[in-house]
Amino acid sequence: MVYTKIVSSSHPKLAVLIDPDKQNPESLLALVNLATNCKVDFFFIGGSLLLEKNFEATIENIKASCSIPVIIFPGNNYQLSSRADAVLFLSLISGRNPEYLIGQQVVAAPTIKRMGLEAIPTGYILIDGGRDSSTSYITQTMPIPHDKTDLAVATAQAGELLGMKLIYLEAGSGAKNSVSAEMIKTVKQNISVPLIVGGGIRTSEQAEEICKAGADILVVGNALEETPGLLMEISLALHGANKEKR
Ligand code: 1GP
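That is the input. Now the predicted structure with SN-glycerol-1-phosphate docked in place:
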């Protein structure tokens, strides 16, 4: 079970986000090999808007090339596959759009059950990352302002009380500013489920700061497209943050 792996230790874990539309088989294989060398813990796969029909094939290719678990990070209810190891069953709890709080989930649930796919209930919280995000536009929801830590904490607590097993603080893919260390630290102190943090992470220093603040899983996507070498730096930074946590 993927969730068991997530909670099995308090070491910060590293997830690489793969947007299937941005990969071809060669670039995917290179990324998978790099991720294996960098001891990446999970692949997240999905996107706000997928136009190419290679979602399934991308998962299949990853599974054929490595043993890193593939977790679907769905932009909508079409992004499901029985070949994946799990799906983040997201509810956008920072928003007030019923379609992304429960509507998409109702459509997806029978398929997930039929596939026997592990679904991990996840409270998805969008934080202002300093620029308009695709998530905000597609879901027609407002992010929580970057400095409103109290709102992020209350939202995360509500998610936990509703039974969500993970909380995801998301600054949006390609965010100018990642979620602040102060917000991560305060949210983490006020919940007891693992915390995922992503959006706009471009340096190993940022990664280290985010893990020290309390993130259990760090998600990196965009930055690796331009600078694949960053993955090794982030992986080493995580191990450093890990030593200080212990
Ligand atoms: C976005 O949190 C992820 O959903 C990753 O963001 O692409 O900015 O790394 P980046």
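The mean pLDDT is 95.
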